[in-house]
Amino acid sequence: MGLVERPRYLAWLNDWREKPVVKVVTGVRRCGKSTLFAMYIDSLLKSGVKPEQIISINLEDLACENLLDYRELYAYLKSRLFVGGYTYIFIDEIQQCKGFEKAVDSLFIKENIDLHITGSNAFLLSGELATLLSGRYVQVEMLPLSFAEYREFRGGDTNTLFRDYMRFGAFPAVAALRDNERLVRSYLDGVYNSILVKDIARRENIAGVTILEGIVRFLISNVGSPVSVKKIADALNSAGRAVSVNTVDKYIRSLCAAYVFYKADRYDIRGKTMLKTQSKYYAVDSGFRELLLSGASADIGHVLENVVYLELLRRGGKVRIGKIAEKEVDFVSQTAEGLTYYQVSATILDETTRRRELSALESIADNHPKLLLTLDEFPRTANYDGIRQLNIIDWLSADKL
Question: pTM of the full predicted structure?
Answer without folding.
Answer: 0.94
